[in-house]
Automatic annotation (TrEMBL):
Protein name from the UniProt record: YcnI family protein
Region feature Disordered, mapped onto this chain: 152-201
Biased composition (Low complexity): 179-192
Signal peptide: 1-32
InterPro entries linked: YcnI-copper_dom, YcnI-like_sf
Keywords: Membrane, Signal, Transmembrane, Transmembrane helix
Pfam assignment, any one: DUF1775
Protein origin, superkingdom: Bacteria
Domain called YncI copper-binding: residue spans: 33-167
């Protein structure tokens, strides 16, 4: 196989691998928003929701977070060291409408370059395919960021998307009577640990996949270079043997 043919075969593969790696990196950067996840929650049910809050400021810590809830019958925030939580209710129905976490004086809040997870246990959530949970993030310097924009009709992500839960339809085995909300802290912690482990595994898989593609592309390029040098050496040897003859 000629060197030119090898280059034509390898070049597209290397380019695709590098592009895929860039996509993985870009996906990680684009996910630096306030997000919500609840892998065990179904429509009309109770469960634990985790809000992942990265600090996107270069100069100030996050010191307050407010999350709007869809009028839940019950909602309890997880106890967090260094934070005070406040549950707001509709005075006429007693439904929970929002929860606010505030960093206590003398505590770091969510420092620059870091993130925190805020969890609630509650329900029942609406019997809908997806539920928006708008959030407001406040920084120590007074900056406010409202994560409240819906996804575009064309699927394009807005600048400040609202945390959104995708809820599967309930099955016969799902808890619709507040079982998850009324269990002890062990169940809440277990669900939170499962969520965190799943997030970490997904992130690691994306990064390792991207790195593997990049290494493969570099190996292919190096292989082409080696074959090219070998071909040149081989050509030189044939010339010398012709001269000796």
């Amino acid at each position: 196989m000629s060197n030119s043919l090898l280059r034509r075969l390898v070049a597209p593969t290397a380019a695709a691998a590098i592009a895929a790696t860039a996509a993985f990196v870009g996906a990680g950067a684009a996910s630096a928003h306030v997000t919500a996840n609840a892998p065990t929650l179904a429509q009309g049910g109770y469960g634990v929701v985790t809000f992942v809050v990265p600090n996107e400021s270069d100069t100030a810590a996050t010191t307050e977070l407010t999350v709007t809830l869809p009028n839940l019958k019950s909602a309890r925030p997880e106890a967090m060291s260094g934070w005070r939580s406040e549950v707001a209710k509709d005075p006429s129905t007693e439904a929970v409408t929002s929860i606010t976490w505030t960093a206590l004086p003398g505590t770091p809040g969510v420092p620059v370059g870091e993130f925190a997870q805020f969890r609630i246990s509650g329900g029942p959530f609406p019997e809908e395919d997806s539920v928006m949970l708008p959030a407001t993030q406040i920084y120590a310097d007074g900056e406010r960021v409202a994560w409240a924009e819906p996804m575009g009709a064309d699927g394009e992500e807005p600048e400040h998307p609202a945390p959104t839960l995708t809820l599967p339809a309930a099955t016969d085995g799902d808890d619709h009577h507040g079982g998850s909300a009324s269990h002890g802290s062990t169940d809440t912690a277990g669900s939170a640990e499962t969520t965190e482990a799943s997030d970490s595994t997904d992130d690691a898989a994306r990064w390792l996949g991207g790195i593997g593609l990049l290494v493969g592309a570099l190996g292919a390029v190096i292989g082409v270079a080696a074959l090219t040098r070998s071909g040149r050496r081989g050509g030189g040897s044939d010339t010398e043997r012709g001269s000796d003859a």
